[in-house]
Hints:
Layout: E1 11-23, E2 30-43, H1 46-50, H2 60-73, H3 79-93, E3 97-107, E4 110-114, E5 117-124, E6 130-138, E7 142-156, E8 181-191, H4 197-202, H5 204-224, H6 230-244, E9 248-257, E10 260-262, E11 281-283, E12 289-296
Antiparallel strand pairs: 1-2, 2-3, 3-6, 4-5, 6-7, 7-8, 8-9, 9-12, 10-11
This protein binds 8-azaxanthine.
The site of 8-azaxanthine (AZA) has 8 residues, from helix 6 and strand 12.
Amino acid sequence: MASAHVSAARYGKDNVxxxxxxxxxxxxxxxxxxxxxxxxLEGDIDISYTKGDNSVVVATDSIKNTIxxxxxxxPVNPPExxxxxxxxxxxxxxxxxxxxxxxxxxxxWTRMEIRGKPHPHSFMRDGEETRNVEARISRKxxxxxxxxxxxxTVLKSTGSAFHGFVRDEFTTLGETxxxxxxxxxxxxxxxxxxxxxxxxxxxxxxxxxxxxxARNITLTRFxxxxxxxxQNTMYKMCEQILAAVPETELVTYxxxxxxxxxxxxxxxxxxKNTGKDAEVYVPQSNPNGLIKCEVAxxxxxxxxxxx
Length: 307
Ligand code: AZA
């Protein structure tokens, strides 16, 4: 057998679904948080792969149990703090575990408005958008957290152009000064590294406003920008989030360009349905453009990309 070694390994439980209720007895107002959690551990675990020695393995079932117990004993909101508490547990309890990679996907349960008033205990799923947190809790490197939004689907029916691009023998796309723009927003903002869970706790009050700010900036920019391209609009969003949340150092967006093709209907009685007369479009499911960017605070450096 050729000489080989484990050059990287991590394991744990993925897709752990948790719902936590918070019941305010005084007011009768309930809050619900539904999350899908992943927790993958790294450390001195090579012998479980190379020798079948399970003495170093914290079973994935125990990792799942720990997620439930941690959710019971701690706040799950903000998810950044929950992720940090969960990951820190593993490196504190097991001396041979050096890193925990925690992902928390929080699903939307928006409080219902009933008869014009927020209902104390009824909620609705208003879209597939999620609030995501990815945390790497490391004995050596501290706690790296990035927060994000995924699956926020938006569309604008004007205020978007795309012209001046390369024209050569491969080009069929026409220039446009007015088109439909639609995308599923996937955005992340990365926080300055935290020394430990105490440092995360100290910044705890910033995480929810940052998510609100990033979501608001995304929607407002999308709606109000006279877009020259997806590239240009997303860059403006990144810049604005970095300015609004000084504790962040990096923002990324990944935006599919969901195309809506104009349809020539002139074959039917000369009907006009293109250019300024376009009303009926054909939504395309694929292929789609995919535009990504990462914007870092300060001048350019040779840092590794997160895309
Ligand atoms: N960016 C856009 O905004 N629209 C496009 C592109 C692009 O790179 N390519 N085709 N259409």
